[in-house]
Amino acid sequence: LPALNVTTMGIDANSNLFLGYNVSGYGTLYRSINRGNSWSVVSGSLSTSPFYGYCCAANGQIYLGGSGIYKSTDNGNTWLDMNPGLDARKSLMSFKAASDGKLYVATAFSGVWRSNDNGQTWQQKNTGITTTYSTQITSNAAGDLLYSAYIPGTTNRGVLFRSTNKGDSWTEVASNGTDRYTKIKQHNADTIWVAGRFGGPVLSYSVDNGATWVNHSIPSFSAIWDIEFNSASTIFLGSESEGITRSTDGGFTWTEGVGNSIPWYGNVIEVELDASGYLFAGTDWYTHMLWYSEPGSNGDAWTEFLDPDLHGLSDIYDLVFDNNNNAYMATGNGYFDPVYMAANSAWNANTDWVSVSTGLPSVAAAAEFGFDPAGYMYTAFYSSGKEGGLYRSTLPVNGIVTSASENNSQSLHANIFPNPSRNIVSIEVSQLFPESKTLIEIIDINGKLLKSLPAKETQTEISVSELPSGIYIFKISNEKSIVVKRVVKE
After folding, report:
1. β-bridge partners, 341
2. How far apart are CA 150 and CA 177, in angstroms?
């Protein structure tokens, strides 16, 4: 037995003794079947915060209180998770909202969960999954789900799974020798890339929606943390010690440390492109956290964000942009403010980043962002304690906005019909302003621009028949005003 940190104790109907310990912040349960002469761990299947409650019922069933409630019907040999739906205190690694409204999370220890009712209830969806230690869940251009996980205690055992039926079942599609897959990302409509960490090829790609994968080794690399694209053939990597690496020929050749990024503090763990073509890069250190490269520079020159509020943060795990190109940053900044945002502007070294963490946990790491079809923003939090879980903004972040007053005669007004639509969407714009071009853009819920065309003076008709069913953002804008509307494609 450990010498310190007993958190609970009890005895069952067969006179077996139980002791709960706090071991490095996790709950560990020991059992003795010989009145304390020897002890063994019986909580190996559980991963929770320390146990602070023990109860043995009259029928012999045992209950533990940790990160939720757990029950044993066989004297502590095995344990059942008794938390209804998704236990909100689970450690979450990744979040994905599908265009049909279904929500998905990948948990640190219990695999994939799905909600069909906007997060009210959750069901575990692990059929076909052989390891539930997750790293990411996302979707491809065809709407299939991709899920990465790893087998703990082994080397070179990252595993990639694919589901073509909304998570009801999964098929293993890759295990290329890396110890952990770090990032899955769609590149154009026909290629998916997956990055790896240590051991094995650090990159693989698929041209058949993730059904099969081709290894794409970069021998000098130890780990790739993120991948981003700014054109059909230009790829950026954030890596363990090579700074920002760039390929301008679709991944055939690579240049390490573009823009003198190798001497940066820490590892580059997040690379993201905004709607204006600015490339952002975030590190895992406590100073010199966030950088940007202007459009046209292509990563050859970088400027550091100098806002003092960024000093002392740790681990920029995710960076996303809403429909208005406002930036949101998720950090591993436990005990402080985990989420920061910056309003869309001409990015510069003195851009103001402010905490937007009201209601979010202060002792957990913000792992990943996402938006649902209604425009609400979600943040997945990782923690071994009670405050990990999934949090949703109280108001939609992606919604209807105008930059001019509705009472202003120069405000832009748009009427979109029919909505919902199956084939043709018609758009009537009330103010075209001859001196200012009015642009119509169609964006999916992940922020990807699908179509862009100028508005006509009378009525603009756009075919949406080729788009999958779901919710899309129609952005109508000119120099004076912006209108954003949500359109349902049946």
Report:
1. 328, 354
2. 11
* Strand bridging mode 103-107 / 92-97: antiparallel
SS3 category, 107: strand
Which residue's structure tokens are 């001409």? 346
Going residue by residue through the chain, which has 490 residues, state the pLDDT in tens, using 9 for 90 and above.
998 899 999 999 999 999 999 987 778 999 999 999 999 999 877 767 789 999 999 899 999 998 778 899 999 999 887 765 555 456 889 999 998 889 999 988 888 999 988 887 788 899 999 998 899 999 999 999 999 999 987 776 899 999 999 999 999 999 988 889 999 999 988 899 999 988 777 899 999 999 999 998 787 777 899 999 988 889 999 988 889 999 999 888 999 999 999 888 779 999 999 988 999 999 988 788 899 999 989 999 999 999 998 888 888 999 999 988 889 999 987 557 899 999 887 899 999 998 888 888 877 889 999 998 878 899 998 876 556 789 998 777 876 444 433 344 455 778 888 888 889 999 988 765 554 578 898 987 666 788 999 888 778 999 999 998 877 888 888 776 777 777 878 8
Q: How far apart are CA 194 and CA 160, in angstroms?
A: 9
Q: HSE on the CB side for 373, CA within 13 Å?
A: 17
Tokens, residue 32: 């003795």
Q: Is the dihedral of CA 446, 451, 453, 456 positive or negative?
A: negative
Q: What is the CA radius of gyration of the chain?
A: 25
Token pair of 217 as six digits: 């080794």
Q: State pTM to two decimals.
A: 0.69
Whole-Å CA distances, 163 to 107, 125, 142, 368: 17, 10, 11, 21
The per-residue DSSP string of 384-414 comes to: SSTT-EEEE-SS-SS----SS-TTSTT---E
DSSP 259: G
Please answer whether residues 42 and 77 qualify as being in contact, where contact means their C-beta atoms are separated by less than 8 angstroms.
yes
